Amino acid sequence: MRVLLTGAAGFIGSRVGAALRAAGHDVVGVDTLLAAAHGLNPVLRPGCHQVDIRDADALAPLLAGVDLVCHQAAMVGAGVNAADAPAYGGHNDFATTVLLAQMFAARVRRLVLASSMVVYGQGRYHCRQHGLVDPLPRRRADLDAGIFEHRCPVCGLPVTWRLVDEDAALRPRSLYAASKTAQEHYALAWSESTGGSVVALRYHNVYGPGMPRDTPYSGVAAIFRSSIEKNQPPKVFEDGGQMRDFVHVDDVAAANLAAAQLEEADRAGFAAVNVCSGRPISILEVATALCDARGGALSPVITGQYRSGDVRHIVADPGRAEEVLGFRAAVDPHDGLREFAFAPLR
User: Fold this and answer.
1) Helix, strand, or coil here: 287?
2) How far apart are CA 317 and CA 324, in angstroms?
3) Helices 220-229 and 283-293 sit at what angle, rounded to 10 degrees?
4) Predicted pLDDT at 200
5) pLDDT of amino acid 36
6) pLDDT of res. 233
7) Alpha-carbon dihedral sign for residues 219, 217, 112, 85
8) What's the Cα-to-Cα distance from 169 to each of 118, 154, 173, 242, rounded to whole Å?
9) Which of 51, 127, 255, 287 has a CA between 20 and 30 Å from the CA of residue 7?
10) To 5 degrees, how large is the angle CA 296–CA 300–CA 302?
């Protein structure tokens, strides 16, 4: 199978490309090589073309003979401030519309889309009196007072998190989240209008060797790693109790391979799938695991600070990935984080 892989030089894209090639597929890689992800002197690997996929004329020839597009390219991170909005809209959403249009022109009918858990917004919560509820955004007065848990919108009591499945409502709460939600909507509309198939892989917190370091868009695991390497204790926001699902980049690559190799009978229309470890872990546990792996000389510092718009808990239900893709993550986060404590970063 011939695959066009966007974002092929990136942290996730490079691992996806390696997995596809190892399975015997012919991979045509493209990457814009954004400085935020690749630095000022990026290295373009053999078989990868430096192409901005917003440039239809440059993209079109690369789609010749392609059976499937694996779309990893994106500007990532929550964003620094509102001034980032045009960049997210351009690199993530406009680029996706150009890609879909060129796929239609080239009669390429299969897409694997890198989406994200951020499309779910606040996640899913349960009140012991009122069952599943959709809490209101956390109040600044509560956050200032160190009250970080969501409250039930009916009775005002604290609520507890529940696993988020793919049928949850999409309620983006950051610029990045809005752009990933829009990508899914464009892909769904493309699928409906063309009869093409889309598998949207909603990645949870991806970590592993090759993560970008020291940028405003780095993942929290890389930020913690960088602090420890500078002999500074990692700073944990809120009380550290925020629950997440950290999934190793090799598992993400395996999920992409499984989506690419779906049998024809299983790939009609649009399907969204969580890509996660299925093993929830708190942000404080992540920081502690990295400190311990590096010898335990440092300990995380809980700052009590918070960022406006941050999500308290979001933990994935892995069931549909196993049902649809036959995918189950192989790397336990505690094992993966011990490895990551010494892994090379970009």
Assistant:
1) helix
2) 13
3) 40
4) 98
5) 67
6) 96
7) positive
8) 11, 19, 12, 21
9) 287
10) 160
DSSP, collapsed to helix, strand or coil, labels residue 222 as: helix
Low-confidence stretches of the chain (pLDDT < 70) are 35-37, 39-40, 77-80, 214-218, 265
Q: Where are the alpha helices (DSSP H) in the chain?
A: 11-22, 35-38, 56-59, 85-88, 95-106, 140-144, 175-194, 220-229, 249-260, 283-293, 319-320, 333-340
Six token digits for residue 107: 């009669």
The two structure tokens encoding residue 32: 């814009």
Q: 110 near 196, Cβ under 8 Å?
A: yes
Question: Cβ(210)–Cβ(225) under 8 Å?
Answer: no
Structural tokens at position 204: 């949870």
Q: Let me know: does 123 contact 161? Beta carbons within 8 Å.
A: yes
DSSP 224-276: HHHHHHTT-PPEE-TTS--EE-EEEHHHHHHHHHHHHT--GGG--SEEEEEE-
What is the signed CA dihedral for 32, 33, 37, 40, rounded to 10 degrees? Answer: -140
Q: What is d(CA 339, CA 346) in angstroms, rounded to the nearest whole number? A: 16
Tokens of 289: 């695991």
CA 2/CA 66 separation, integer angstroms: 5
Predicted confidence at residue 217, as pLDDT, reads 53
- Give the three-class secondary structure for 81: coil
Residue-level pLDDT at 73: 94
Instruction: Give the per-residue pLDDT at 47.
Output: 79
